[in-house]
Amino acid sequence: MNRTTVSLIACATALAAVTGFASLSAPDASGTDTAKAAAELPVERTSLLCPSPSLSDIADTSYTSFTPVTKGTGSDGKAELVAAAQESEDSGKKDDKKAGDKKAGKPVLTAKEPGTPDTEDTSGGDSPALIGTAEGRFAPGWTVQETTEVAAGTGRGLQGVNCSAADTSFWFPGASTAADRTDYVHLINPDDSAAVVDIELYGKDGAVATTAGEDITVPPRSSEPILLSTLTGEKQTNLTVHVNVRSGRVGAAVQALDDKIGGDWLAASADPAGSLVLPGIPKDATAVRLVAFAPGDEDADLKVRLASPSGSITPAGNETLHVKAGMTTAVDLGAVTRGEAGSLVLTPTGDSVPVVAALRVTRGKGAKQETAFIPATRPVGTRATAADNSAKGSTLSLVAPSGTAQVKVTASAGGDGGTAVSKTYTIKGGTTQDVELPRPSGLKGTYALTVEPVSGGPVYAARTLAATEDGIPGFTVQTLPDDRGTVAVPEADEDLSVLQK
C-alpha cells in the first residue's frame, strides 16, 4: 500500500471518529487531487456531559433533551443520559460507590423522538453528574439543558447550564475566591481511562500560586467537583480559571455561588480571540461586570461597545479596556443597558491580541438580587439550539455586530403536545433585538428553539430563563453557539470503503 493511501485511511478514520462515516476523494493515477467541494453531512454521534447540579437538599432540577429534525439522517438511533459511576469525596456527598455503579447502569433520561423535547426531574443534593450519548437521527444538534431552582441558602435562585462536550482546554473569567463566594470547578471524565488535569488561577496581579491545582486525577467515567478556595489561600474577587488537560479529556463548568446575591453556572468562554461578543444582557440588569484576561505575552487594548436596539453605542466612561498580559482585569459597567436589550462587543483598538471574557450580570436590588453569567461565545453558525423554554419567562436575544442579518427561529412542538412554528426576523447591523418568540400552537409543556441564519452577516444569540419567587428575580442565561449538527466532508470521486493493497 502506498504512502498516499495510508494517509487517506488515517484521515478517513479521524473523520469517522467524529461523524460516524466519512468519504474522501483519492488522487487519480496522475496524482491530481480530484476532491470536490465539501458537503455538509449530519453528524452520527454526539456526546454531552452534565455537571452534578447542586449540593442543596432543597434543589429541584430538570434535564431537558432535544434534537432538531435534520435532513439526511436515517431512521435509527438513540439518545440517553446515564449517571457518572463515581462521586468525589470532596463534593461533600455520601461516598457510596456501589450505589453510584448501580445508577450508572440505568439511563436517567432516554429521548423518544427528534423534534420533541423530553424532560426528567430530580430533587435534592445527591444528583450525580451525567454522561450523555446520542447516535443516528438523535445526534445532529442534540442539546441538553440542566436547570435548577434553589429556594434558599448560598446560591439561591435559578441556575442553568447547557451540558457540553469534552475538551482539553477551558477558560473561565469571572470566578472568585472572595469570602462571600463558594465556587466549584466541576470536571467530568466520560472515558474509560483516567484524565489528568491542571487548574491554573490568574488574579489581578497575575498567576496565583497553587500546587493543589496540579496533577488532578479524574477517574474513568466519573466527576470531580473542586472547591476553588482549597487551591489557594488568596482571596481574589475576580479570577480567571484555566482548566488544562494533560492526559485524556474532560467536560468542565464553574458553579459560582454567592451568599447574598444568588448564583449560577459560569460556562467556558469562547477560545481566545482578538474580537469577542457577549450577547443577551437583560433589559433590567442593575449591575454588569466585565472580566477579561489575555493569556499570551502581550497586553490587549479593546474598544468596548454596546449593541443596543438602535445601534452601537459606547458605555460612558468605559470607551476602552486595557488588559495586561497574564492578569485578570475587571470593570463595573453599572446598569449599562438602561432598560433596553443589549450585547457587549469587544474589538481591538490596534493589533489583535487574543483574550477571553465574561460578564457577571445582576438583576434586582438590595436583598432581592440575583446573578448570572454571560461568557463570550461563538456565532450561531449554521444552527443553534436551546432547550427548556416555557410559555412565560423565556427571552431570545439576537445580535448582528457587523452587518444586517435575517434569522429564522423555530419553536418546536411542546413536550406534552403542540405544533411547531417558525418566524423570520431581520436584525440590523450593530444592534441587539429581544425578539418576540414564536409560540407553538396548542403548547403543552416545555419547548425548544432553533436559530438559523438565513442571510447577511454573522449572528450571535443568547436565551434567558426567568422565574421570580418571593420577589427575587431569578434568571439564567445560556449563549447559543453552533449546535454542531453537521460536519463538512469532502465529496468523493472514488469509494474508499474498500482499498486494494
Task: Note down, in words, how this protein is organized.
The chain is built from two helices and 39 strands. The strands form ten sheets. Strands 5-16-12-18-19 form a five-stranded mixed sheet. Strands 11, 13, 14, 15 and 17 form a five-stranded antiparallel sheet that branches. A hairpin with a 2-residue loop joins strand 27 and strand 28. The N terminus is likely disordered.
Could you give a quick summary of the protein structure above?
With 501 residues, this protein is mostly beta strands.
List keywords for this structure.
mainly beta; disordered N terminus; five-stranded antiparallel β-sheet; five-stranded mixed β-sheet; 501 residues; single chain; 39 strands
Query: What is the spatial order of strands in the main beta sheet?
Result: 5-16-12-18-19
Total of helices: 2
Q: What is the overall shape?
A: globular
Strand-residue proportion: over 45%
Topology:
Elements: H1 3-19, E1 38-42, E2 45-50, E3 59-66, E4 77-83, E5 86-87, H2 97-105, E6 107-110, E7 118-123, E8 130-136, E9 143-150, E10 157-162, E11 169-175, E12 181-189, E13 195-203, E14 206-207, E15 216-218, E16 222-227, E17 239-247, E18 251-258, E19 263-266, E20 276-281, E21 285-293, E22 300-308, E23 311-313, E24 320-323, E25 328-334, E26 342-348, E27 356-365, E28 368-375, E29 384-389, E30 394-400, E31 405-411, E32 417-419, E33 421-427, E34 431-435, E35 441-444, E36 447-456, E37 460-469, E38 472-479, E39 486-490
Parallel strand pairs: 5-16
Antiparallel strand pairs: 1-39, 2-8, 3-7, 3-9, 4-6, 4-8, 9-10, 11-17, 12-16, 12-18, 13-14, 13-15, 13-17, 18-19, 20-26, 21-25, 21-27, 22-23, 22-24, 22-26, 27-28, 29-36, 30-34, 30-37, 31-33, 31-36, 32-35, 37-38
